């Protein structure tokens, strides 16, 4: 008995389970008519499958629909932030610049309009003059390295004397007189 | 891996994998690319806006196919009530690759049109099954899950749909 079309279709789709699959294969091994029919069904299946909508026709539509979602569903986080930043930029920056400009105008304007003289300047500026005396004037030296050469022998002896040292001076090759 | 439909990353993952499948199913059921695009968009809008959780990517895929095929069937029914409109909609412009020779493109286009016209003539329940069998990578079991019918029912419908298509295509 030959294999019917329903079984052949299932076999073609790779969905026929054992033991029927082996039985169908055995039958196809010797039955030319069933093999021919299987070929016909395979060709038909391939013809139907070849009408598939190609990926190149899908790609553009896939991008377009995704763009719709990017616009209408996903922007929440990023775009809100963006709008906020924009508002800050639009509102704060001109406000700051206007205020700064107003200060400059008032400051310069006051000098231009009223002018200045010494007494006015003294009224405006706080007095900082201090008398010059020994208490607040300190002498500074620009000598960077201080060595013994900076002092005279007399100064050194005086200093050592003040520190409580008994200093005895001798000159080379000169013997003191008894 | 669980899928939260309104999570942007999960959505995009599902979208990338399922859109081509969905587009093929809907196109071959409606025979209209623009309409298929609209229906796919609508299906994904519902998917996102409902904020559902799916146990796996396949479950999300089956849900989307189910929604899109229902929308497509409704459209086809509406269209068949407005036959004039159908004729107009069928004349959509098809874009084709420019790398192939013009003649080759024409032959392919003609073959596709013949097959698609034949599919259009199938009753709804056979059309859905054969479209899913031939234009997606789903097996009988998966098709059964999408359509909520038994596997043996899918097997019979595939066989009967092919039989009808064979007779329609050999008539020409």
Could you please describe the fold and organization of this structure?
The complex is a heterodimer of chains A (178) and B (172). Chain A is mainly alpha-helical and 178 residues long. Among the domains of chain A are: 5-49, no CATH class; 57-114. Chain A has 7 helices and no strands. Chain A has helices at residues 5-12, 20-30, 32-49, 55-72, 76-114, 118-124, 153-162. Chain B has 172 residues and is mainly alpha-helical. Chain B has 2 domains: 1-93, Rna Polymerase Sigma Factor, Chain: A; 98-172, Winged helix-like DNA-binding domain superfamily/Winged helix DNA-binding domain (Arc Repressor Mutant, subunit A, Orthogonal Bundle). In chain B, helix 6 packs across helix 8. Chain A binds chain B through residues 5-6, 9-10, 13, 15, 41, 44-45, 47-58, 60-62, 64-66, 68-69, 73-74, and chain B through 6, 8, 11-12, 15, 19-20, 23-24, 27-28, 33, 36-37, 40-41, 44, 48, 94-95, 97, 108, 111-112, 114-116, 119, 130, 133-135, 139-140, 155-156, 158-159, 162-163, 165-166, 169.
Instruction: State the order of secondary-structure elements of chain B, H for helix, E for strand.
Output: EHHEHHHHHH
Q: Report the helical percentage of chain A.
A: 55-70%
Name the chain pair with the biggest interface and residue counts per chain. Answer: A-B, 31 and 43 residues
Q: Helical region count of chain B?
A: 8
Strand coverage percent of chain B: under 5%
Fraction of residues in β-strands of chain A: under 5%
Rg calc of chain A? 54 Å
Strand order of the largest sheet of chain B: 1-2
Integer tally of domains of chain B: 2
Structural class based on helices, strands and sheet pairing of chain B: mainly alpha
Characterize the quaternary organization of these chains.
Answer: heterodimer
Q: N-to-C terminal Cα separation of chain A, in Å? A: 157 Å
Shape of chain B: globular
């Amino acid at each position: 008995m030959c294999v019917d079309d329903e079984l052949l279709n299932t076999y073609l789709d790779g969905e026929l389970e054992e033991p029927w699959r082996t039985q169908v294969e055995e039958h196809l091994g010797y039955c030319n008519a069933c093999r021919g029919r299987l070929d016909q069904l395979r060709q038909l299946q391939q013809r139907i499958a070849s009408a598939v909508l190609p990926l190149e026709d899908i790609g553009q539509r896939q991008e377009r629909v995704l763009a719709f979602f990017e616009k209408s569903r996903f922007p929440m986080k990023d775009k809100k932030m963006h709008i906020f930043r924009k508002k800050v930029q639009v509102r704060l920056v001109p406000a700051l610049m206007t205020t700064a400009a107003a200060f400059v105008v008032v400051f310069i304007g006051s000098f231009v309009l009223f002018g200045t003289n010494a007494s006015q300047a003294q009224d405006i500026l706080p007095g900082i003059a201090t008398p010059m005396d020994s208490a607040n004037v300190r002498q500074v030296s620009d000598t960077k390295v201080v060595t013994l050469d900076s002092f005279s022998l007399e100064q050194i002896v005086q200093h050592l004397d003040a520190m409580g040292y008994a200093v005895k001076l001798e000159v080379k090759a000169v013997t003191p007189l008894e | 891996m669980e899928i939260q439909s309104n999570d942007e990353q999960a959505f995009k993952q599902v979208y990338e994998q399922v859109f081509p499948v969905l587009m093929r199913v809907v196109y071959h059921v409606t025979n209209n690319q623009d309409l298929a695009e609209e229906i796919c968009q609508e299906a994904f809008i519902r998917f996102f806006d409902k904020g559902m959780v799916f146990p796996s990517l396949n479950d999300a895929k089956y849900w989307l196919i189910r929604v899109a095929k229902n929308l497509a069937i409704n459209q086809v029914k509406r269209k068949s009530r407005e036959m004039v409109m159908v004729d107009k909609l069928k004349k959509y412009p098809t874009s084709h690759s420019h790398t192939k020779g013009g003649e080759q493109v024409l032959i392919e286009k003609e073959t596709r049109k013949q097959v698609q016209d034949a599919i259009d003539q199938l009753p709804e329940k056979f059309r859905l099954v054969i479209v899913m069998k031939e234009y997606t990578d789903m097996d009988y079991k998966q098709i059964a899950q999408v359509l909520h019918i038994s596997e043996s029912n899918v097997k019979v419908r595939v066989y009967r749909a092919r039989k009808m298509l064979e007779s329609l295509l050999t008539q020409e």
